[in-house]
Design a protein that fits this description.
Radius of gyration of chain A: 21 Å
Shape of chain A: globular
Largest sheet of chain B: 8 strands, mixed
CATH superfamily of one domain in chain B: Oxidoreductase, molybdopterin-binding domain
Mean pLDDT of chain A: 89
Number of strands of chain A: 0
CATH architecture of one domain in chain B: Alpha-Beta Complex
Low-confidence stretches of chain A: 207-214
Low-confidence stretches of chain B: 21-26
Oligomer: heterodimer
Distance between the termini of chain B: 73 Å
Structural class of chain A: mainly alpha
Helix content of chain A: over 70%
Strand content of chain B: 15-25%
CATH topology of one domain in chain B: Sulfite Oxidase, Chain A, domain 2
Mean pLDDT of chain B: 89
Chain lengths: 214, 319
């Protein structure tokens, strides 16, 4: 009797390691002096980039599942979502420790006075409950419906992430606009999908009614 | 009766993944501890003290006044981390694209309120001036700073040669505009060409120099070859690179960043820890190569020399 190969588990494990690769590269470049003349800035920005990339990747999984009519992509949402949070935590740690070196007064002033930092911090706070409720036990505890509603916070968090990036750039807004465009596409897809589903439902409802009255 | 929640098999985390997650957390903690250990922090900030390439182009430089005795930033910092949007908006783009900027032949037009206007070959323009080394602090508006050993001469000495008229109140500088050659100029990130300006007394101040080199070498393209301005008490963007025109005017000239974002950048742009950029604090700066931020000094530490130029001016208003 041959054991069944669990491809999904294998894929997840492989992806898990792949997700750590950006961090490994940043650390390696940091140690090898490859982060340039301003390594703190390069590291903080690099970690922020990856937090945003993983967040968008997470949001791309449902559309991908719809397009391919497969369920596997949806099963990766937790993995990528948690990695987005992981990179965001490191981004925040890099800002707190390496950039500001625990200068809480300066950090406080930044959060209050610098809109891009206010917005970035909001994105982080929006994602905290999502990471905290990412376990199966929490899903059960909250119940699917409530859990789902809570996890819609990922949308404002992603918007805040892109706005944060857009606001900190001095003049060249090309990159934040690319992220913004991708996010708009992903959110737009959901909106269309939602409308379609509700019209279908409505139509089905009508049909049933017609049958019922007939 | 209590209902047992229905759990589909697909919802149960398989053991392997659960183990992975544990390992993930352990790894995370380890990475955090590593990042905090002094050794790897030092590694992050270590810069190889790579010497400048080749032999000095200007071997016998007089050490000019006003030089700081702070250690200059290593050559790779000074020539590898630049803001020069003509050559790209990334910090490392200018060094990568510097070869696209052809600096020979180069001529500079002097015009406006001068008795002797004209267009001059760079060599002729420089000939009468004795070059000297000036080791200055450079404070970028983005809250980082460097120490750079420039090679240059006072701008005032040059301006005097062309005899400014009594109506000359300001100096306007224009940088190179060659969209075919300079990749950054193929997009209007900021209006091209780059322009800057100084008040006449700022331009004539002995701290203000025109630079043609650094570290005893000819100025690399990414640093604004072949001729750039250096005004050490102002944010770096005032020190316009690759100058092709100097015009003396009666009216205050426009300057690129103030045109681009007037709420954020002004004409004066004096380094001032008390006046924040709307989006970030100017109270501190990161000297490249250092871990802890240092306090930013009024007029970038040159207050003794230049503060009198602004006596009675509200520097919050004239930022």
């Amino acid at each position: 009797m041959g054991a069944r190969v669990d491809w999904a588990a294998r894929l997840k494990r492989g992806l898990f390691l792949l997700c750590l690769l950006p961090l490994a590269l940043l650390v390696w470049r940091g140690v090898a002096g490859g982060l340039g003349a301003n390594p703190v800035e390069a590291l903080t920005r690099g970690l922020g980039d990856w937090a945003l990339r993983f967040l968008l990747l997470t949001l791309a999984l449902s559309p991908l599942a719809d397009l391919t009519h497969r369920s596997e992509p949806r099963r990766l949402r937790r993995l990528f979502g948690l990695f987005a949070f992981f990179y965001l935590c490191l981004h925040l740690a890099s800002y707190t420790v390496l950039d500001q070196f625990f200068d809480w007064r300066a950090i406080g002033a930044d959060i209050v006075k610098r809109p891009y930092i206010t917005v970035g911090m909001a994105a982080f706070l929006l994602l905290v409950p999502l990471a905290a409720t990412s376990t199966d036990a929490m899903i059960r505890r909250l119940g699917g419906r409530r859990w789902k509603r809570l996890h819609r916070l990922v949308y404002p968090a992603a918007v805040a992430g892109v706005v944060h990036y857009f606001m900190l750039v001095k003049a060249d807004v090309r990159e934040p606009l690319i992220y913004g465009g991708i996010l708009a596409l992903l959110l737009g897809w959901r909106r269309i999908g939602h409308k379609k589903a509700s019209t279908q439902k409505a139509q089905r409802g009508k049909g049933e009614n017609a049958e019922g009255s007939g | 009766m209590k209902k047992t929640p229905k759990i589909r098999p697909s919802e149960i985390t398989d053991e392997k993944l659960w183990r992975e997650r544990r390992r993930f957390l352990q790894l995370g903690t380890a990475a955090g501890a590593l990042a905090l250990s002094g050794e790897s922090l030092a590694g992050l900030f270590e810069r190889k003290a790579e010497p400048p390439p080749g032999k000095p182009d200007f071997p016998h430089l007089r050490r000019g006044g006003f030089s700081t005795d702070e250690p200059p930033n290593p050559w790779p910092d000074v020539t590898g981390y630049n803001n020069f949007y003509e050559l790209g908006t990334g910090k490392e783009d200018p060094a990568a694209n510097a070869h696209r900027l052809r600096t020979r032949p180069w001529s500079v037009t002097i015009e406006g309120e001068v008795a002797k206007p004209g267009t001059y070959a760079l060599e002729d323009l420089l000939k009468p001036h004795a070059l000297e080394e000036r080791i200055y602090r450079l404070r970028c508006v983005e809250a980082w700073s460097m120490v750079i050993p420039w090679v240059g001469f006072p701008l005032g000495d040059l301006l005097k040669r062309f005899q400014p008229t009594s109506r000359a109140k300001f100096v306007e500088f224009t940088a190179v505009y060659r969209p075919d050659e300079l990749p950054g100029q193929q997009r209007a990130v900021i209006p091209w060409p780059y322009v800057e300006g100084l008040r006449m007394d700022e331009a004539m101040h002995p701290l203000t120099i025109l630079a043609v080199g650094l570290y005893g070498r000819v100025l690399p393209g990414q640093n604004g070859a072949p001729l750039r301005l250096v005004v050490p008490w102002k944010y770096g963007f005032k020190s316009i690179k690759s100058i092709v025109r100097i015009r003396l005017t009666e009216q205050m000239p426009h300057n690129t960043w103030a045109i681009s974002a007037p709420e954020e950048y002004g004409f004066y742009a004096n380094v001032n820890p008390a006046v924040d950029h709307p989006r970030w604090s100017q109270a501190k700066e990161r000297r490249l190569g250092e871990f802890l931020k240092r306090d930013t000094l009024p007029f970038n530490g040159y207050a003794e020399q230049v503060a009198p130029l602004y006596a009675g001016m509200d520097l919050r208003k004239f930022y």
